[in-house]
Amino acid sequence: MRVPADELAASAARRFVRAVLAERTAPQVPGAPMISGRSVDDAVLLASELVTSAVAHAGFEVEVACRIETGPGPPADSAQSEGEGVGVVVEVTERGSAGSLDGDDGVQSPVRGHGRQLMRALADSWGVTYRRTGTVTWFRLECVMVTPLATTEQGLTGPLTEAVRRGPSVPESVLPRDRTARSAEWAERAGQSFLAEAGELLAGQLDEDMVAALAGQLLVPRLADWCGVWLTTDNAEVRLSHVWHMDEQKIRALRQVLEKDRPPAGLSTTGVSWPWPASRGDGNTGGSALAFPLVAGGLYHGTLMIGQAGLPQLTDGVVRLAGDVARRMAQAVVTARHYTRQARISRTLQRRQLPASLAAIPGVDTAIVYEPWGEGQTVGGDFYDLFPIKDRKWCFLLGDVSGHDVEAMSVTGLVRHLVRMLAREGHGVESLLNRLNHAMAEEVAEAMTLRGEREGSRFLSLLYGELEPDSVAGGARCTIACAGHPPPLRLGTDGSVTPAAGPQMLLGIEEHAEFHANSLTLVPGETLLCVTDGVTERRRGTRQLDDDDGLAQVLRRCVGLGAKAVAEYVRRAVHDFSVEPIEDDLAVLVLEALPLPRSAETVATALPGGRIG
Fold this sequence. Notes:
Layout: E1 2-3, H1 9-22, E2 34-35, H2 37-57, E3 61-72, E4 84-95, H3 110-126, E5 129-133, E6 136-142, E7 145-146, E8 151-152, E9 155-156, H4 160-166, H5 179-189, H6 191-203, H7 208-219, E10 226-232, E11 238-245, H8 251-260, E12 272-274, E13 287-296, E14 299-309, H9 316-351, E15 364-371, E16 382-389, E17 393-401, H10 406-424, H11 429-451, H12 453-456, E18 460-469, E19 476-483, E20 489-491, E21 497-499, E22 518-522, E23 527-531, H13 533-536, E24 539-540, E25 543-544, H14 550-556, H15 563-576, E26 586-593, H16 598-605
Antiparallel strand pairs: 1-3, 2-7, 3-4, 4-6, 5-6, 8-9, 10-11, 10-14, 12-13, 13-14, 15-26, 16-17, 17-18, 18-19, 19-22, 20-21, 20-23, 23-26, 24-25
Helix pairs in contact: 1-2, 2-3, 3-5, 3-6, 5-9, 6-7, 6-9, 7-9
């Protein structure tokens, strides 16, 4: 049976194995031996563990096979007689796996190895034959065979009547140990290995609810029938984060009961006996439940609760192991919360660094491509803006602050808002750059005085311009300047590519530097391409993308494309230039002058001095 890699995989495998073995739990011929119900339960549990390991820890879709085979019986020191034995064989084949979990060099995949080592420990503690070949994991469980009582229409006959009173005629030493005893023994023999693996798995989670979910998978069914995890909230209350049961169909009913009977916030005593949730609707009317506080650094972060059915109390070994898991859970929750808090602060700050949207310019189509280099960041050292000012003018900018760290990101927001303020106060392109350069030079000098030259070297490259659409003839008049930035490129309707501004020094290097602007007119159909050095300096070995006017060659192939298509074409060219990952922020701004709509042209030709015809 093929089992998908989802949360119901273990449940599907259990139903399959139980269905296969069902016919062997009832005699085909009166008096013929049959598999005991306990053996079936053990086989179902083993299949669940195998599938959970493959799916939950490795993420594979698997195929499950189950069969009964005869072969050599138990070892000579077993209570059963030697000879032919009957075993249930469960095979789980990982589909999509590149090969064996343990490669030819014996090196384990870090994630997949965790679950497999737990399975080896489980097999050793249960005395179950375990083997792994390639992508196939194989268990053989020696079965306890029982002989059903012979009956007639009149009922039980002969000497078997006494056997009924005594119960099954199987020596007690042969009967498999109950799951509680196995859990206790496993906690003693494999506990340290389990804790090491559990601690490593939990420590790698950066979401507190994932910590709770993973803990449930680790504890059930190894140490408990079910578990629930409560986590504290910002208002000092607790919420039920995760509930897990060895039978997934009973999770909803268990959650409903635990929601009503939650532990108090601030629980401090470990291993507190808790009332058994008898109204779970799963047929279990009693058992042992314990609550463990999640405490780290002297602070309470939640509660772990576990339960086993049919027991007056959990064994000492299980309690100690669960307590150790709770301590590791608490530390993992703290780590996840620190990460979440920092990520939230970062996202909040980053949202203020870039405009929420680009202003629409009549007669000009615009497009932006922005890809910050830092993993998990939405803003880096590159920044852009496009905003309106008075007199039907729009301003655009594309900048790059040296560095990729948080300090570089903070400078991007400062510069963007400063440019907006200066532009709306009436400063033209040249005046704005001169004032911005003066401010940056003062900031750099102050930082160098306070912190040293290395940490104070925050320089800025900036491409800044003004656009004034021509509502009569179409196109737009453009004034633009480039300070230490890759020059903008102008794509003509004939496919020619020319620089639209000359090079000048970076902002912040020389306080008294004077910056100059260039003016041009974009006629309908022409395009202006502005990029940061993440585009021009994209490397392939010792070669850069813009060597030998490489960016101009890319732009020539964009004749006839709209602004958004040009931006995407350039972005794709940057990624395709090398197989190596990009190592810098990437920003592309495209401005395309559009022809006037037909109705606007008609009005324009009818104006005084206009040409009619």
